[in-house]
Design a protein that fits this description.
The radius of gyration is 21 Å and the shape is elongated. A two-stranded parallel ribbon has the order 1-2. Strand 1, helix 2 and strand 2 form a beta-alpha-beta unit. It is built from three helices and two strands; from the N terminus they run αβαβα. The longest helix has 13 residues. It is mainly alpha-helical and 95 residues long.
Amino acid sequence: ILFLSGPGVRPGYQVQGASIMDIAPTVLALMDVPIPELMDGHVLEAAMTPELQRQLNITYSQGEMVRQEVEAVPEMSSEDEELIRTRLEDLGYLG
């Protein structure tokens, strides 16, 4: 289910054929951020008023999407692991 609301959204418009892949490009366009060419999906312009469509400056960036380096996660102590295991068992996730 997809709901759009706010200034520039066509009231009562029913989006047809949208995919979850369309959310990121739509949000990027609304934030005036270039959309990576390799990103799946498209901007849901049909759900926007003509005024908002004219204001949008939809641009696409060249090249690949940037990936940020992730810091290594520190190792857990055996006490931390046991605490997590106990909590997961209490919640019913582990038998």
